[in-house]
Amino acid sequence: MATLFNKSFRYVELTDGHYEHGDYVHGALSVDRMVHGTVQSATYKEQIPAVTGTRNTGNVDIYSSDKLTCRTHGGNDGGYVCFGGNIYQLVSEQYYPHLRGIEHWKYVAEMVPAEEVPQEVKEAFAA
Fold first, then answer.
1. How much is the pTM?
2. Are 43 and 36 in contact (CB under 8 A)?
3. In angstroms, how far is CA 74 from the centroid of its own chain?
4. How far, in Å, CA of 18 to CA of 99, rounded?
5. Which domains occur in the chain, in start order?
6. Beta bridge partners of 60
7. Position 28 pLDDT exceeds 80
């Protein structure tokens, strides 16, 4: 596949979690790979709309030649990236098919507080 990016970043993903006795149990690590693309700090203007109705611990923009998985309202854990020593969870996706033969996606990811990062994700990025 053609790509706009000559960089790559590490991406991990968990299978869907579930509830056990009222407690949420994260899924198992299902994807751990390098992805063509880039992770960048979000601009101030991009972060303003993100604060409505959600915790805003910090956002990054992710541009990728690969389709990744975002967190969903149905409980999907989605994908994670590490940037600047912090772990971010993908929360939204935009598809850009405008360049002939070169597809890419833009994602927004929110920083996950260290105490809320699933253990499997911590271990994957520590390795």
1. 0.82
2. no
3. 16
4. 39
5. 8-126 (2.40.10)
6. 41, 109
7. yes
